[in-house]
Amino acid sequence: MKITNVVSDFFTDVLNFFKGRAILGVDIGTASIKLAEISETGGKLNLANYGILETKDYLNHPNKAIQTSSLPIEERETANMLKTLVWEVKPKTNLAIASIPSFASFATVIDMPLMSREETAKAVLFQAPQYIPMPVSEALIDWLKIDEFGTDARQKFQHIFVVGISKKLIQKYKNIFREAGLRLVSLEFNGLAMTRSLIDAGEDETIIVDIGAEETEIFVASRGRLEYVGGTDYSGIHLTQSVARSLGITTMRAEELKRRRGLSSEGPESELSTLTIPFLDVIIQEVNHVKEVYQRRYGGEAKKIMLVGGGANLIGIEKYFTKQTGLRGTKPNVFRKVSYNLSLEPVLRQLNNEFPTAIGLAERYFE
Question: CA–CA separation, 78 vs 143, rounded Å?
Fold first, then answer.
Protein backbone atom coordinates (compact mmCIF):
# COMPACT_ATOMS: atom_id res chain seq x y z
CA MET A 1 0.00 0.00 0.00
CA LYS A 2 1.45 3.30 -1.00
CA ILE A 3 1.30 5.78 1.87
CA THR A 4 -0.32 9.06 0.87
CA ASN A 5 -2.08 12.12 2.20
CA VAL A 6 -2.06 12.39 6.00
CA VAL A 7 0.88 10.03 6.47
CA SER A 8 3.11 11.31 3.69
CA ASP A 9 5.18 13.52 5.99
CA PHE A 10 6.60 10.52 7.81
CA PHE A 11 7.40 8.65 4.59
CA THR A 12 9.12 11.50 2.79
CA ASP A 13 12.42 9.61 3.01
CA VAL A 14 11.02 6.83 0.83
CA LEU A 15 10.56 9.25 -2.03
CA ASN A 16 13.66 11.39 -1.64
CA PHE A 17 16.62 9.13 -0.94
CA PHE A 18 18.53 7.31 -3.66
CA LYS A 19 17.63 3.65 -3.41
CA GLY A 20 20.47 1.33 -2.56
CA ARG A 21 21.01 -2.21 -3.74
CA ALA A 22 19.75 -3.82 -0.52
CA ILE A 23 17.05 -3.44 2.13
CA LEU A 24 16.14 -5.06 5.44
CA GLY A 25 12.60 -6.31 5.93
CA VAL A 26 12.00 -6.39 9.68
CA ASP A 27 9.01 -8.23 11.12
CA ILE A 28 8.52 -7.49 14.83
CA GLY A 29 5.99 -9.98 16.16
CA THR A 30 4.74 -11.03 19.56
CA ALA A 31 7.70 -13.19 20.60
CA SER A 32 10.32 -12.81 17.88
CA ILE A 33 11.99 -10.42 15.48
CA LYS A 34 12.67 -11.67 11.97
CA LEU A 35 15.03 -9.91 9.58
CA ALA A 36 15.49 -10.58 5.86
CA GLU A 37 18.14 -8.76 3.83
CA ILE A 38 17.19 -8.66 0.16
CA SER A 39 19.60 -7.40 -2.46
CA GLU A 40 18.98 -6.53 -6.10
CA THR A 41 21.32 -7.22 -8.98
CA GLY A 42 20.39 -6.84 -12.63
CA GLY A 43 16.72 -6.60 -11.81
CA LYS A 44 16.73 -9.87 -9.83
CA LEU A 45 16.12 -10.16 -6.09
CA ASN A 46 18.23 -12.36 -3.86
CA LEU A 47 18.04 -13.34 -0.18
CA ALA A 48 21.42 -12.05 0.94
CA ASN A 49 20.99 -12.80 4.64
CA TYR A 50 18.40 -13.52 7.28
CA GLY A 51 18.05 -13.94 11.02
CA ILE A 52 15.53 -14.56 13.76
CA LEU A 53 15.73 -13.74 17.45
CA GLU A 54 13.06 -15.28 19.66
CA THR A 55 12.31 -14.68 23.31
CA LYS A 56 11.31 -17.68 25.41
CA ASP A 57 10.45 -15.66 28.51
CA TYR A 58 6.86 -15.21 27.34
CA LEU A 59 6.22 -18.95 27.81
CA ASN A 60 6.29 -18.48 31.58
CA HIS A 61 5.50 -14.77 31.76
CA PRO A 62 3.00 -13.49 29.14
CA ASN A 63 3.97 -9.90 29.94
CA LYS A 64 7.44 -10.70 28.57
CA ALA A 65 6.10 -10.84 25.00
CA ILE A 66 7.40 -8.14 22.66
CA GLN A 67 3.89 -6.88 21.95
CA THR A 68 0.32 -8.18 21.89
CA SER A 69 -3.15 -6.74 21.40
CA SER A 70 -3.17 -5.79 25.10
CA LEU A 71 0.57 -5.21 25.63
CA PRO A 72 2.14 -2.17 23.91
CA ILE A 73 5.60 -2.60 22.47
CA GLU A 74 8.40 -1.77 24.94
CA GLU A 75 10.99 0.46 23.27
CA ARG A 76 14.18 -0.32 25.20
CA GLU A 77 13.83 -4.12 25.31
CA THR A 78 12.79 -4.32 21.66
CA ALA A 79 15.63 -2.03 20.58
CA ASN A 80 18.11 -4.23 22.46
CA MET A 81 16.73 -7.34 20.77
CA LEU A 82 16.88 -5.74 17.35
CA LYS A 83 20.39 -4.46 18.01
CA THR A 84 21.49 -7.99 19.00
CA LEU A 85 19.94 -9.48 15.88
CA VAL A 86 21.62 -6.90 13.63
CA TRP A 87 24.97 -7.60 15.32
CA GLU A 88 24.56 -11.35 14.68
CA VAL A 89 23.40 -11.01 11.06
CA LYS A 90 25.83 -8.20 10.14
CA PRO A 91 23.83 -6.91 7.14
CA LYS A 92 25.49 -4.76 4.51
CA THR A 93 22.80 -2.07 4.68
CA ASN A 94 21.18 -0.10 7.48
CA LEU A 95 18.01 0.77 5.51
CA ALA A 96 14.93 -0.97 6.86
CA ILE A 97 11.20 -1.38 6.27
CA ALA A 98 9.16 -2.64 9.21
CA SER A 99 5.74 -4.18 9.64
CA ILE A 100 2.88 -3.11 11.86
CA PRO A 101 0.88 -6.16 13.04
CA SER A 102 -2.87 -6.09 12.57
CA PHE A 103 -3.49 -6.30 16.32
CA ALA A 104 -1.51 -3.06 16.80
CA SER A 105 -3.47 -1.21 14.12
CA PHE A 106 -7.06 -0.78 13.05
CA ALA A 107 -8.03 -2.18 9.68
CA THR A 108 -11.40 -2.49 7.98
CA VAL A 109 -13.05 -2.54 4.57
CA ILE A 110 -15.69 0.06 3.77
CA ASP A 111 -17.99 0.55 0.78
CA MET A 112 -18.52 3.88 -0.90
CA PRO A 113 -19.62 5.26 -4.28
CA LEU A 114 -17.01 5.15 -7.05
CA MET A 115 -15.28 8.53 -7.29
CA SER A 116 -11.91 10.08 -8.14
CA ARG A 117 -8.83 9.32 -6.01
CA GLU A 118 -8.88 12.82 -4.53
CA GLU A 119 -12.57 12.59 -3.63
CA THR A 120 -12.07 9.10 -2.19
CA ALA A 121 -9.23 10.35 0.04
CA LYS A 122 -11.48 13.07 1.46
CA ALA A 123 -14.35 10.62 1.95
CA VAL A 124 -12.10 8.13 3.76
CA LEU A 125 -10.89 10.78 6.21
CA PHE A 126 -14.49 11.88 6.78
CA GLN A 127 -15.73 8.34 7.49
CA ALA A 128 -12.66 7.08 9.38
CA PRO A 129 -13.90 8.14 12.87
CA GLN A 130 -16.79 5.66 12.51
CA TYR A 131 -14.41 2.72 12.21
CA ILE A 132 -11.20 3.63 14.04
CA PRO A 133 -11.51 3.65 17.86
CA MET A 134 -9.26 6.62 18.47
CA PRO A 135 -9.34 10.32 17.61
CA VAL A 136 -8.28 10.90 14.01
CA SER A 137 -5.84 13.53 15.32
CA GLU A 138 -3.95 10.75 17.14
CA ALA A 139 -3.78 8.34 14.19
CA LEU A 140 -2.26 8.12 10.75
CA ILE A 141 -4.85 6.97 8.22
CA ASP A 142 -4.16 5.21 4.95
CA TRP A 143 -6.36 3.51 2.39
CA LEU A 144 -6.22 1.27 -0.65
CA LYS A 145 -8.86 0.65 -3.30
CA ILE A 146 -9.61 -3.08 -3.56
CA ASP A 147 -12.11 -3.27 -6.42
CA GLU A 148 -15.26 -1.88 -7.98
CA PHE A 149 -18.79 -3.26 -7.98
CA GLY A 150 -22.25 -2.10 -8.92
CA THR A 151 -25.88 -2.84 -8.17
CA ASP A 152 -26.90 -1.75 -11.65
CA ALA A 153 -25.44 -0.02 -14.71
CA ARG A 154 -26.16 3.45 -13.33
CA GLN A 155 -24.48 3.20 -9.93
CA LYS A 156 -21.00 1.92 -9.20
CA PHE A 157 -19.34 1.44 -5.82
CA GLN A 158 -15.88 0.57 -4.56
CA HIS A 159 -14.42 -1.47 -1.70
CA ILE A 160 -11.80 0.52 0.22
CA PHE A 161 -9.32 -1.05 2.64
CA VAL A 162 -8.66 1.43 5.46
CA VAL A 163 -5.94 1.16 8.09
CA GLY A 164 -5.22 3.43 11.04
CA ILE A 165 -2.00 3.45 13.06
CA SER A 166 -1.40 5.30 16.30
CA LYS A 167 1.06 8.18 15.99
CA LYS A 168 2.54 7.10 19.33
CA LEU A 169 3.27 3.65 17.91
CA ILE A 170 4.89 5.18 14.84
CA GLN A 171 7.18 7.22 17.10
CA LYS A 172 8.06 4.13 19.14
CA TYR A 173 9.11 2.28 16.01
CA LYS A 174 11.23 5.22 14.91
CA ASN A 175 12.94 5.28 18.31
CA ILE A 176 13.53 1.51 18.30
CA PHE A 177 15.17 1.49 14.89
CA ARG A 178 17.25 4.57 15.61
CA GLU A 179 18.54 2.99 18.83
CA ALA A 180 19.40 -0.19 16.90
CA GLY A 181 21.43 1.79 14.37
CA LEU A 182 19.00 1.31 11.48
CA ARG A 183 17.35 3.86 9.22
CA LEU A 184 13.62 3.18 9.15
CA VAL A 185 12.43 4.34 5.74
CA SER A 186 8.91 2.93 5.73
CA LEU A 187 6.23 1.05 7.66
CA GLU A 188 3.58 -1.27 6.25
CA PHE A 189 0.58 -3.21 7.51
CA ASN A 190 1.78 -6.80 7.86
CA GLY A 191 -1.11 -8.33 5.91
CA LEU A 192 -0.13 -6.33 2.82
CA ALA A 193 3.50 -7.46 3.05
CA MET A 194 2.43 -11.07 3.55
CA THR A 195 0.06 -10.96 0.58
CA ARG A 196 2.82 -9.54 -1.62
CA SER A 197 5.22 -12.40 -0.88
CA LEU A 198 2.69 -15.24 -0.97
CA ILE A 199 -0.12 -14.54 -3.45
CA ASP A 200 0.25 -14.11 -7.21
CA ALA A 201 -1.93 -11.74 -9.22
CA GLY A 202 -3.78 -14.64 -10.85
CA GLU A 203 -4.53 -16.67 -7.72
CA ASP A 204 -8.04 -17.39 -6.47
CA GLU A 205 -9.28 -16.34 -3.06
CA THR A 206 -6.96 -17.73 -0.41
CA ILE A 207 -7.27 -17.59 3.36
CA ILE A 208 -3.89 -17.00 4.98
CA VAL A 209 -3.74 -18.07 8.64
CA ASP A 210 -0.73 -16.65 10.46
CA ILE A 211 -0.43 -18.61 13.73
CA GLY A 212 1.92 -16.62 15.91
CA ALA A 213 3.06 -16.98 19.49
CA GLU A 214 0.17 -15.08 21.12
CA GLU A 215 -2.02 -13.95 18.23
CA THR A 216 -3.48 -15.61 15.14
CA GLU A 217 -4.11 -13.26 12.22
CA ILE A 218 -6.39 -14.25 9.35
CA PHE A 219 -6.23 -12.61 5.93
CA VAL A 220 -8.24 -13.19 2.76
CA ALA A 221 -6.25 -12.42 -0.39
CA SER A 222 -7.31 -12.63 -4.01
CA ARG A 223 -5.50 -11.82 -7.25
CA GLY A 224 -2.50 -10.55 -5.32
CA ARG A 225 -4.59 -8.16 -3.19
CA LEU A 226 -5.49 -8.18 0.48
CA GLU A 227 -9.27 -8.05 0.76
CA TYR A 228 -10.29 -8.92 4.31
CA VAL A 229 -8.75 -9.09 7.79
CA GLY A 230 -9.74 -11.12 10.86
CA GLY A 231 -8.08 -12.80 13.80
CA THR A 232 -8.26 -14.36 17.25
CA ASP A 233 -6.26 -14.28 20.47
CA TYR A 234 -5.90 -18.07 20.42
CA SER A 235 -2.43 -19.08 19.25
CA GLY A 236 0.66 -21.18 19.86
CA ILE A 237 1.05 -20.23 23.52
CA HIS A 238 -2.41 -21.58 24.38
CA LEU A 239 -1.52 -24.98 22.92
CA THR A 240 1.73 -25.02 24.88
CA GLN A 241 0.11 -24.04 28.16
CA SER A 242 -2.59 -26.69 27.77
CA VAL A 243 0.05 -29.39 27.25
CA ALA A 244 2.06 -28.15 30.23
CA ARG A 245 -0.92 -28.12 32.61
CA SER A 246 -2.28 -31.48 31.52
CA LEU A 247 1.04 -33.34 31.62
CA GLY A 248 2.38 -31.51 34.67
CA ILE A 249 5.51 -30.33 32.93
CA THR A 250 7.16 -26.94 32.37
CA THR A 251 6.06 -24.76 29.50
CA MET A 252 9.54 -25.03 27.99
CA ARG A 253 9.27 -28.82 27.94
CA ALA A 254 5.72 -28.61 26.60
CA GLU A 255 6.91 -26.35 23.77
CA GLU A 256 9.60 -28.87 22.85
CA LEU A 257 7.12 -31.76 22.83
CA LYS A 258 4.61 -29.79 20.77
CA ARG A 259 7.16 -28.95 18.11
CA ARG A 260 8.57 -32.47 18.00
CA ARG A 261 5.34 -34.48 18.04
CA GLY A 262 2.70 -32.12 16.73
CA LEU A 263 -0.63 -33.83 16.02
CA SER A 264 0.99 -37.25 15.74
CA SER A 265 -1.24 -39.92 17.24
CA GLU A 266 1.44 -42.54 17.65
CA GLY A 267 3.71 -43.43 20.55
CA PRO A 268 3.55 -42.62 24.26
CA GLU A 269 3.01 -38.91 23.61
CA SER A 270 -0.13 -39.38 21.51
CA GLU A 271 -2.08 -37.47 24.17
CA LEU A 272 -0.60 -34.28 22.71
CA SER A 273 -3.03 -34.28 19.81
CA THR A 274 -5.98 -34.64 22.18
CA LEU A 275 -4.76 -31.68 24.20
CA THR A 276 -4.02 -29.35 21.29
CA ILE A 277 -6.99 -30.01 18.98
CA PRO A 278 -9.58 -28.05 21.05
CA PHE A 279 -7.46 -24.91 20.73
CA LEU A 280 -6.93 -25.47 17.02
CA ASP A 281 -10.70 -25.87 16.67
CA VAL A 282 -11.19 -22.36 18.12
CA ILE A 283 -8.87 -20.96 15.44
CA ILE A 284 -10.64 -23.00 12.77
CA GLN A 285 -13.99 -21.67 13.98
CA GLU A 286 -12.72 -18.13 13.42
CA VAL A 287 -11.35 -19.10 9.99
CA ASN A 288 -14.80 -20.39 9.00
CA HIS A 289 -16.38 -17.19 10.33
CA VAL A 290 -14.02 -15.04 8.24
CA LYS A 291 -14.78 -17.22 5.21
CA GLU A 292 -18.54 -16.76 5.68
CA VAL A 293 -18.35 -13.00 6.26
CA TYR A 294 -16.12 -12.56 3.21
CA GLN A 295 -18.47 -14.59 1.02
CA ARG A 296 -21.52 -12.72 2.29
CA ARG A 297 -19.93 -9.32 1.77
CA TYR A 298 -18.07 -9.86 -1.49
CA GLY A 299 -19.90 -12.72 -3.10
CA GLY A 300 -16.57 -14.47 -3.60
CA GLU A 301 -15.70 -17.88 -2.26
CA ALA A 302 -12.36 -18.77 -0.69
CA LYS A 303 -11.12 -22.06 -2.08
CA LYS A 304 -7.66 -22.43 -0.54
CA ILE A 305 -6.06 -22.13 2.86
CA MET A 306 -2.42 -21.39 3.61
CA LEU A 307 -0.87 -21.73 7.08
CA VAL A 308 2.13 -19.61 8.05
CA GLY A 309 3.83 -18.44 11.24
CA GLY A 310 5.61 -20.48 13.88
CA GLY A 311 2.42 -22.45 14.57
CA ALA A 312 2.44 -23.73 10.99
CA ASN A 313 5.49 -25.85 11.88
CA LEU A 314 3.29 -28.12 14.00
CA ILE A 315 3.39 -31.60 12.46
CA GLY A 316 0.04 -32.58 10.91
CA ILE A 317 -1.59 -29.16 11.28
CA GLU A 318 -2.17 -28.52 7.57
CA LYS A 319 -3.96 -31.85 7.10
CA TYR A 320 -6.21 -31.13 10.08
CA PHE A 321 -7.09 -27.61 8.93
CA THR A 322 -7.96 -28.70 5.39
CA LYS A 323 -10.17 -31.49 6.71
CA GLN A 324 -12.04 -29.24 9.15
CA THR A 325 -12.49 -26.26 6.80
CA GLY A 326 -13.07 -28.09 3.54
CA LEU A 327 -10.52 -25.81 1.88
CA ARG A 328 -7.66 -27.01 -0.28
CA GLY A 329 -4.33 -26.67 1.46
CA THR A 330 -1.56 -24.78 -0.32
CA LYS A 331 1.99 -24.41 0.90
CA PRO A 332 3.62 -20.97 1.21
CA ASN A 333 6.46 -20.11 -1.14
CA VAL A 334 8.16 -16.80 -0.43
CA PHE A 335 10.83 -17.47 -3.03
CA ARG A 336 8.63 -17.05 -6.10
CA LYS A 337 10.37 -13.75 -6.88
CA VAL A 338 13.47 -14.08 -4.67
CA SER A 339 16.40 -16.42 -5.29
CA TYR A 340 18.37 -18.01 -2.47
CA ASN A 341 21.52 -20.02 -1.84
CA LEU A 342 20.94 -23.75 -2.25
CA SER A 343 22.58 -24.33 1.12
CA LEU A 344 19.32 -23.05 2.65
CA GLU A 345 17.32 -26.05 1.40
CA PRO A 346 17.30 -27.78 4.84
CA VAL A 347 15.59 -24.76 6.47
CA LEU A 348 13.38 -23.82 3.54
CA ARG A 349 10.15 -24.87 5.27
CA GLN A 350 10.91 -22.66 8.26
CA LEU A 351 11.71 -19.71 6.01
CA ASN A 352 8.49 -20.17 4.01
CA ASN A 353 6.41 -20.41 7.18
CA GLU A 354 8.04 -17.69 9.26
CA PHE A 355 9.46 -15.08 6.84
CA PRO A 356 6.64 -14.08 4.45
CA THR A 357 6.16 -10.70 6.15
CA ALA A 358 9.88 -9.83 6.33
CA ILE A 359 10.46 -10.82 2.70
CA GLY A 360 7.27 -9.11 1.52
CA LEU A 361 8.40 -5.88 3.19
CA ALA A 362 11.73 -6.02 1.38
CA GLU A 363 10.05 -6.75 -1.96
CA ARG A 364 8.06 -3.54 -1.63
CA TYR A 365 11.28 -1.52 -1.66
CA PHE A 366 12.11 -2.69 -5.18
CA GLU A 367 8.65 -2.25 -6.70
Answer: 28
